[in-house]
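User: quick one, fold this
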Amino acid sequence: MISILFDKFIVEVCESGYDGIIAVKMCHKISDYTILVFSVYSSPENSPWGRDANSSYAYLLSKIYLADDVNAIFVCGDVNGRIGDLTDTVLGLDNVSDGIPVDKVVNGHDSSLIEFLHEAVMSVVNSRVQKGHDDFTFVAKRGKSVVDYIIIPQDQIPMCKEFNVKSCTELAEHLGLMHLVGTNSRIPDHAILSLQFEIPVVLDRVKTAQGQGRNNSVDNSKYRVKHLPNAFMESAIFRQAILDIIQMIKRNQEEQNDIDAIYEQLCDTISGEMDNFFYIKSDNLLIE
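Assistant:
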């Protein structure tokens, strides 16, 4: 999984300057679809370091506001905030259905988390996606609670297809790893949260240069023009083609049919040049 990630995405740590917050940006090499993932940890409310959750959320919110160049945002982690039945949506403004939380208890970090969700227009995935697959994310002898969340912008919720909470004990038993747990070892008491997320573009490589050709059945094709090659429109052949078209325009300025034909030739010439330098991404068909 890790090798696939680095093979298809440019991955970089873009934020690590605030205690408890790390951000990783993943940009797909072909389509430029960019995902920003924040890993967040907040100390428990009774900890000497857990009494200023507002500052952490304010810093996180500022980073989200500045992330206007990404397509998807995820906030994940142990925030030690129990929001119980409190709603993370604004009545009359947000068009998101409420979930059915398994944890009905709130704690001292609840108001800070809810305020952050309202300001960021984000919602928790827990109990909202694939209802019935939610569970307590922390289970220990002293009790159980939901303090680990996956949080996303509200407009991304329809893209979420599958959500699961699995305890580390369940995973160890499923993978046959229990024999590796020694007498001095302890399985983590926090669960693993997983989310299947469907992105709205095809992320497969398509190139039409060197005679590969473009699939005629493709609709809504878009050129990847974020990174402009230095040689684009600089070749002698392309320049000569443009000069020929200019001469044709000078000679044919009266007949509409001639003008239309010249315009179509100009479009074909530019499209051919773009085919030679850019990848095409399609938002509806997989092309090979």
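User: anything notable?
Assistant: The first strand starts at residue 9 and ends at 18.
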